[in-house]
Specification:
single chain, about 400 residues, mainly beta, Tachylectin-2, Chain A, five-stranded antiparallel β-sheet, four-stranded antiparallel β-sheet, about 5% helix, globular, disordered N terminus
């Protein structure tokens, strides 16, 4: 009996020994491709790099999950800019047009509105005001050389209220058609607001058989603010219209959410307009650059340098700043100037509006500038009825704007 038990024990030990020898060894963990696959495109061929990760390990994390990632600096945009040093010079220390100071129309502020050269004369339609807010008076002057100007009349051609607008309007651009029709483009201020308040407004058109009228506004506006959410959803202002072979191109200021940029629209007839979807010129985004603010008041011409745009920078609503320029080969992509061409050091401390003209190799920049005094005689930019003196000066440049 004992031998039988010994036999069973030996049999069990043998069975266990055989089982241990026949069990396969645990396999080494094979490489597993992670879900994050890195792709690199080399000479139009996609090269896939596989990363081996052990199934018992987590992929490395940098930085560790408990630490906040280091902020990544967003690089500022860089522009190839055109140097403006010494380009424009003041034609005279005296204004070329002073505000109207007659008993019939005692104005204090005069802004260059629209200038054109036609039939051997410079023609300017300038906007004048007693103060703001008030009705804009449009006056008309002519010049043989762009420097010496004569008012055609001490009476205004018309007031802004005559243009079928909610409140008043500023003339901004002028054309003479092949059939002799004169065309003014203007923008509206739809309610009487103070300087630093953004106003709703649209762009309109008026025509006349001659520069001294009679002027008749179109029944409706030719350009209005965009839909909700659009970059120009609040207001459109400052039209500058250029006639080309295919029709007309307009540049304008668009406002939305207290921001401003410069847009473009095209038209086959100057009446029905199609907007370019996005603005063509926005704030530079460069720290310390002169045009890193509201982009407003484009004045555009075609010259041998291509498309040339003079535009203003503003740091707040109701405050126009210095004017610089940009050039373009196609009217869409622009190269900007490195510094302004007109600022407080060029003329007076205040700059509110400007106008650009090109004729026979020469650029003309008409700019409103002046100063405001309060009742004590001290300098001030506010006040209900200050002693204001804002007039139009001329700066010129002969030759190309390009380096």
């Amino acid at each position: 009996m004992k031998s039988y038990k010994y036999f069973q024990i030996l049999l069990l030990l043998g069975f266990l020994l055989v089982s241990c020898q026949s069990e396969p060894a645990a396999p080494k963990p094979e490489a597993v491709v992670s879900e994050a696959v890195e792709e690199a495109v080399v000479e139009n061929e996609v090269v896939v790099t596989e990363t081996a990760v052990s199934p018992t390990e987590l992929p490395p994390t940098e930085p560790p999950p408990t630490e906040a990632p280091e902020p990544t600096a967003i690089p500022e945009p860089e522009f190839n800019r055109i140097s403006t040093e010494g380009l424009f010079t003041l034609a005279s220390n005296e204004p070329v047009i002073r505000h109207n100071d007659t008993e019939a129309a005692p104005m204090k502020l005069t802004f260059p509105g629209a200038v054109v050269y036609h039939d051997g004369l410079f023609h300017m339609f300038h906007n004048e005001l007693e103060w703001w807010p008030s009705q804009v008076h449009i006056f008309y002057s002519t010049s043989p050389d762009g420097l010496n100007w004569t008012r055609v009349s001490d009476e205004p051609l018309f007031l802004g209220e005559a243009l079928n607008v909610p409140y008043t309007a500023f003339v901004s651009s002028v054309l003479v058609e092949d059939d002799g029709t004169w065309v003014l483009y203007f923008y509206t201020v739809d309610q009487a607001v103070m300087w630093e308040t953004m106003a709703e407004g649209s762009i309109g058109r008026a025509t006349a058989p001659a520069p001294n009228g009679p002027w008749t506004a179109d029944d409706g506006m030719v350009l209005t603010a965009g839909e909700q959410g659009a970059w120009d959803s609040y207001s459109v202002q400052n039209p500058s219209v250029v006639r080309v072979e295919q029709g007309y191109v307009m540049y304008y200021t668009g406002y939305s959410d207290r921001q401003a940029a410069i847009g473009m629209a095209t038209s086959p007839d100057g009446i029905q307009w199609t907007k370019h979807e996005e603005p063509v010129l926005t704030r530079s985004g460069e720290t310390g650059s002169w045009d890193n603010g509201f982009m407003i008041d484009p004045q555009v011409i075609l010259s041998p340098d291509g498309w040339v745009m003079m535009y203003a920078n503003s740091n707040k609503v109701g405050k126009h700043g210095p004017y610089g320029f940009a050039v373009s080969a196609d009217g869409l992509n622009w190269t900007r100037s490195d510094t302004p061409i007109v600022d407080g050091s060029s003329v007076g401390p205040f700059i509110w509006a400007a106008e650009l003209l090109y004729l026979e190799g020469k650029y003309f920049v008409y700019v409103e500038s002046g100063q405001v005094f309060d009742g004590s005689g001290s300098f001030s930019d506010t006040g209900g009825n200050p002693d204001a003196d804002w007039n139009i000066f001329l700066l010129t440049h002969d030759g190309s704007l390009m380096p």
